Amino acid sequence: MNIEKIMVVGAGQMGSGIAQVCATSGFEVVLYDIQEEAVSKGLANIYNLLSRQVGKGKLSEGERKEIINRIQQSTSLQDARDCQFVIEAAVENIDVKKDIFKQLDEMTRPETILATNTSSLPITEIAAVTNRPEKVIGMHFMNPVPVMKLIEVIRGLATSDETYEIVNKLGEKLNKVPIEVNDFPGFIANRILLPMINEAIYALYEGVATKEAIDDIMKLGMNHPMGPLQLADFIGLDTCLYIMETLHEGLGDDKYRPCPLLRKYVNAGWLGKKTGRGFYVYQ
Ligand code: CAA
Fold first, then answer.
1. What one-character DSSP code corresponds to residue 206?
2. Is the ipTM of this complex over 0.85?
3. Which terminus of the chain has fewer CB atoms gathered within 10 Å of its CB, N or C?
4. Measured in whole angstroms, how far is the alpha carbon of residue 173 from the centre of its chain?
């Protein structure tokens, strides 16, 4: 299968990062969002990140122009009809994702592969709303997408070997390292990362140490690039809570119970870096 054109559904932080990586690797990209404003904002983010690379001498102005020119803006899912591949990176809500996949199933050619960047929702359930569950797969990129090497490739119950192989090769073309996992709540990355973050929040909640001390201990003692509370702010506290709830509900063990302090911050609207306040305050 020859992949030339990829639609990315959702122009937020993850979607625009995925679009940037695809266009940088030479693919034609259709960047879709419901509102034109969201697409323009996503494209502006890409332009700014590429400009930083130009400033550092890692990219020429000509290359930046070529990458940007490969990205078509869209507010119609119908634009997926001439794409061989779709990566959905919309909001983490199972009903929204099912609705998008139903529409994509109707609008794309039968051979088009439909991937989702979900961080914890069941691939099998999303695939079940389409008439091509064998061509539905999880492709979980990490934030910030242009920097992080990993793609968790999640096989749903019906995902075919052929689809998996195509996604694996695409991941390598994107200069990433695809790693195969099965479809269980939180997959691997978030099943391990989020309980660590949740435990750090419990430690803060119980007054074991200050937030700075907790983060410094993990940075200096474990060589983590960011402390767990700083990372939680970076991911978004609403996303952290949502993933913990998915783990708690899906795996049924109380060790995944979200910390009440995390819930309190989310209820206060302190969602981390994106709202200017989480465990830390951002200007
Ligand atoms: N977008 C794109 N590029 C970025 C970036 C961003 N938001 N932030 C930093 N970069 C780039 C910089 O431009 C720089 O690039 P060059 O090497 O080409 O110059 C490089 O990353 C290093 O950046 P800095 O020197 O400014 O800063 P740093 O060394 O502190 O690295 C970091 C920043 C890469 C974000 C690092 O702190 C880090 O790795 N943090 C942990 C990230 C992490 O754990 N991500 C996973 C989150 S969990 C997830 O995504 C899954 C989920 O479902 C919740």
1. T
2. yes
3. C
4. 18
User: 147, 204, 134, 123: which is closest to 20 by C-alpha?
Assistant: 147
**Tokens 């390292």 appear where?**
177
Tell me the per-residue pLDDT of 31-65, one tens digit each, with 9 for 90 and over.
999 999 999 999 999 999 999 999 999 999 999 99
Q: Whose CA is nearest to atom 34 of ligand 1?
A: 147
Question: Cα(147) to centroid of ligand 1, in Å?
Answer: 6
Enter the pTM of the model: 0.95
Report the separation in Å between the CA atom of 45 and the middle of ligand 1, taken as the mean of its atom positions: 15
Give how far the C-alpha of residue 192 lies from the chain's centroid of Cα atoms, to the nearest Å.
16
Evaluate: CB of 231 within 6 angstroms of ligand 1: yes
Residues 6 or more apart from 155 whose CB is under 8 A from it? 123, 137, 138, 164, 180, 181, 182, 183
Instruction: State which CATH number among 3.30.70.270, 3.40.50.720, 3.30.360.10, 2.60.40.1590 fits the domain covering 5-181.
Output: 3.40.50.720
